TrEMBL record:
Source taxon at top rank: Bacteria
A GO term, aspect molecular function: protein kinase activity
Name of the featured protein: Aminoglycoside phosphotransferase
Entry keyword annotation includes Transferase: yes
Pfam families the UniProt entry points to: APH
SUPFAM superfamilies per the UniProt record, alphabetical: Protein kinase-like (PK-like) (SSF56112)
Keyword Transferase tagged: yes
Stretches assigned to the Protein kinase domain: 32-327
Keywords: Transferase
Length: 327
């Protein structure tokens, strides 16, 4: 699950003095006792901080991509926090006055990564975690919109668009035969992707779902788990910076990207998602793979020889995607 992927941009490195200067408006008179860079994310930078005389930790989040992305994430968390477990914002500074990037203080959520449960957990924990992740995703998808597209800082769709079969094929054709994606795949695999896309693209035009909130990075690296009354359950869904209004299959694909077809996790994740009231089309697996091809090809286009681990993983994932022809 993105094991060993290289970061395109190094994380921001701050010492305790710099962190203290940044957060002093939030905690006047308090000194930072410890600060530890945390997380597996490949974009923003997060520090777990503790203040002198306080046992409660906090998270300092530094946004690499700028103000609008930070404002969007804040707006999303405010919208979903009553129905979806999230790490809430305590304070946010978008001015870039104290620090040259937007930053926020967020509550600390206890728990371990879903990735670790998927990789090392018992079957009992795996079943419970899959079901909890499925229910949580269904609740995310209950937040709907009138249009599909990308959000501005106010969580409004700026330029409505829809990924129908025609738009999908145009994107894949561009990726394979003009962009670097095709070069990194090689001619044989690129032709397999093109054939798969032509065969199944029409299914995207048949989707009639209402556009909904899509996390777009809903996977084991962005979900914290804890042990609750019903076993392993979601503690918080993290990193909403790439969320947008789209169809449900983006998130289904992202969660199951590394899962073998028909795995214990897949079965319990999908079962719980449906039991929460979500509806999947008969060809949901193919629809998910089509949506995932867009993401995978885009990421491969933006890979380079300087990111070999990322490139090799994406090549393998794309090859596996076009072999799936059932569901």
């Amino acid at each position: 699950m993105k094991e060993g992927w290289e970061r395109a941009v190094p994380p921001m490195q701050l010492d305790i003095t710099q962190i203290h200067d940044i957060i002093s408006p939030v905690f006047p008179g308090k000194k930072v006792a410890t600060a530890e860079r945390i997380g597996t994310g490949l974009s923003n930078t997060n520090y777990k901080i503790r203040l002198e005389g306080s046992a409660e930790p906090y998270v300092l989040r530094l946004f690499r991509k700028g103000r609008e992305i930070a404002e969007k994430e804040l707006a999303i968390i405010r919208r979903v926090r009553q129905t979806v477990p999230v790490a809430d914002y305590i304070y946010a500074d978008m001015s870039c006055g104290v620090f040259d990037k937007p930053w926020a203080i967020m509550e600390w959520k206890e728990g371990g990564l879903l990735r670790d449960v998927m990789r090392d957990g018992s079957e009992q924990d795996l079943v419970a975690a899959a079901a909890s992740a499925g229910r949580t995703l269904a609740n995310i998808h209950k937040h709907t919109f009138t249009e599909s597209g990308f959000f501005n800082g106010d969580m409004e769709v700026q330029d409505p668009m829809r990924m129908d079969g025609e738009r999908f094929l145009a994107f894949i054709e561009q990726s394979l035969f003009q962009d670097l994606c095709g070069q990194w795949l090689g001619e044989e695999l690129a032709q397999s992707v093109w054939s798969f896309s032509q065969t199944y693209s029409h299914l995207l035009s048949e989707i009639e779902d209402t556009p909904m909130l899509v996390h777009s990075d809903y996977n084991g690296l962005n979900i914290l788990m804890r042990h609750g009354p019903e076993g392993c359950e979601v503690s918080a869904v993290l990193d909403w910076e790439d969320a947008f209004s789209w169809n449900r299959y983006v998130d289904i694909a992202n969660m199951l990207r590394y899962e073998p077809d028909g795995s214990v996790f897949e079965k319990n994740f999908v079962r719980a998602y449906r039991e929460e009231g979500a509806v999947l089309y008969d060809h949901w697996k193919i629809l998910s793979k089509l949506e995932d091809l867009v993401a995978l090809c885009d990421m491969l286009t933006h890979s380079s020889l300087a990111t070999p681990n990322r490139m090799h993983d994406l090549q393998r994932l794309i090859a596996g995607t076009v072999q799936v022809t059932k569901g």
